[in-house]
Automatic annotation (TrEMBL):
CDD domains named among the record's database cross-references: metallo-hydrolase-like_MBL-fold
Transmembrane segments: 7-26
Metallo-beta-lactamase domain boundaries: 58-280
InterPro entries for the chain: Metallo-B-lactamas (IPR001279), RibonucZ/Hydroxyglut_hydro (IPR036866), UPF0173_UPF0282_UlaG_hydrolase (IPR050114)
Keywords tagged on the record: Membrane, Transmembrane, Transmembrane helix
Name of the molecule in the record: MBL fold metallo-hydrolase
Pfam families reported for this sequence: Lactamase_B_2 (PF12706)
Keyword Chloroplast assigned: no
Keyword rRNA-binding tagged: no
Gene3D superfamilies, per the entry: Ribonuclease Z/Hydroxyacylglutathione hydrolase-like
Highest taxon in the source lineage: Bacteria
Length: 339
């Protein structure tokens, strides 16, 4: 073979290798169906006897409902595709928000509690605020600037005040300062702010983190903590016990063993929940009306992250419940179904 031909063959092989690598990285990192043992099985009986229910829509979008009042965490429903996020400016989809409001009767939502200002949490705030004029939006100044970018009136906006409980109907909610997942190459703006009203469409990178918060929800004797990101402020939760923990596991498998151990100690071991529900594990580049699937290898190894959580939970005799569709999940330990 001549040198020239050899070079062409090498280049061809290199491109083939690159394409194969990209195809692999875009594959889901495991299958939800392999975790059937932990998946919640809907039961009419248990769902109807519980006062407080919750639906999970992927990432850390959770809707709490007691039949009268709703509390929404984040409210990210538009879920633009990976190519839109990488190559275009992104924006909230008014028709998706309208459909969710109708389907889920979101007019009863008194407050949207926002965990931080990255687009996979905060993209839809402005549109939700406009279509739900009775709803308060609670978050950091960066979060409020995302709502301001869509001209949401100031009286709907509340700057988050950590450790100051707020009441909405029968719900008591308390924000707790938290820590974001460790930075990555495309997500390295931790602590940076959205310092001015952010108009959409905007690049995903314009949605700066602007500090992170966990939320404690108390209702009818139940305590629930929502921790969206895989990060913990040391000893922040040490005096708290909860019944149900919604625990972010994004990129847990990509961290060191020490980090994983510390994160699970600071959360699961400290809070001693009866049930842990993993969140922020789904491929958020897929539309909201599809069953959730694992993140692609590009972003995480979800199969591995889930196994790390399950192992720690089983050691501590905590029940793991995996939710992959927005079904009503009862938050009452007496009726929380055995998976
Ligand atoms: Zn984030």
């Amino acid at each position: 073979m001549s040198i020239k031909k050899g070079l062409w063959v090498s280049l061809g092989l290199f491109i083939l290798f690159l394409v194969a690598g990209m195809v692999f990285l875009l594959q889901p990192s495991g299958q939800v169906s392999n975790f059937q043992k932990w998946q919640y099985q809907t039961s009419e009986k248990t769902a109807s006897t519980s006062i407080l229910k919750m639906k999970f829509f992927g990432v850390s979008t959770l809707l709490f409902d007691d039949g009268k009042t709703q509390i929404l965490i984040d409210g990210f429903f538009s879920r633009p595709s990976l190519s839109q996020v990488l190559f275009q400016k992104i924006q909230s989809q008014p028709e998706v928000i309208q459909r969710m409001i109708q389907q889920q009767q979101l007019q009863r939502t008194q407050a949207i509690l926002v965990t931080h200002s990255h687009y996979d949490h905060a993209l839809d705030l402005a549109e939700l605020g406009k279509q739900l004029p009775q709803t308060k939006i609670i978050g950091s100044n960066s979060t409020l600037n995302i709502a301001r970018g869509g001209a949401v009136p100031e009286q709907q906006l509340m700057l988050v005040q950590p450790l100051q409980p707020l009441s909405f109907g029968e719900f008591k909610v308390t924000a707790i300062a938290s820590q974001h997942t460790p930075p990555t190459a495309v997500n390295n703006n931790l602590g940076e702010e959205v310092s001015r009203p952010l108009q959409q469409p905007a690049r995903f990178s314009a949605f700066k983190e602007g500090h992170s918060f966990d939320y404690l929800i108390e209702h009818s004797g139940q305590r629930v903590l929502i921790k969206a990101s895989t990060g913990a402020v040391p000893n922040q939760l040490k005096n708290l016990k909860v019944d149900t923990l919604f625990l972010g596991i994004a990129q847990l498998s990509r961290q060191s063993t020490e980090f994983q151990q510390n994160y699970l100690d600071q959360t699961l071991k400290t809070l001693k929940p009866k049930v842990v529900v993993p969140i922020h594990w789904d491929n958020f580049f897929k539309p909201v009306d599809q069953a959730l699937e694992f993140l692609p290898y590009l972003a995480d190894n979800t199969d591995e992250s889930l196994k790390i959580l399950i192992q720690a939970a089983e050691q501590q005799k905590v029940q793991v419940v995996l939710l992959s569709r927005p079904v009503s999940y009862p938050l009452d330990p007496a009726v929380q179904s055995q998976p």
